[in-house]
Write a structure and sequence with these properties.
Strand order of the largest sheet: 1-2
Shape: globular
Order of helices and strands: HEEHHHH
Number of helices: 5
Structural class: mainly alpha
Largest sheet: 2 strands, antiparallel
Radius of gyration: 16 Å
Oligomer: single chain
Length: 86
């Protein structure tokens, strides 16, 4: 049932994120990741659908995710920063 709902949302509204609300008021975000074959295709799809912005809705969540990724994958961050001359 959830799969059908996500597929319908993705096809009709071009959205990859769906927010479900529990009876107690808490919210759950569900995402459909893209089937990209390359990094460029992934970035283009992410820009087009804005699903990453939907996933990280507050500045605290965005900063927390960046810190987590920088600590767990430092070589990848350095590689990206060097390639983009950051």
């Amino acid at each position: 049932m959830l799969q059908n709902l996500l597929h319908k949302r993705m096809v009709e509204k071009n959205q990859r994120a769906l927010v479900l609300e529990h009876k107690n008021g808490r919210k759950l975000r569900v995402f459909v990741l893209s089937d990209s074959q390359s990094t460029k295709a992934f970035v283009d799809d992410a820009k087009k659908t804005q699903w990453i912005n939907d996933m990280l809705c507050s500045p605290a969540q965005r900063e927390g995710m960046l810190i987590y990724l920088a600590k767990t994958e430092p070589h990848d961050y350095i590689k990206v920063a060097n390639s983009r001359k950051l």
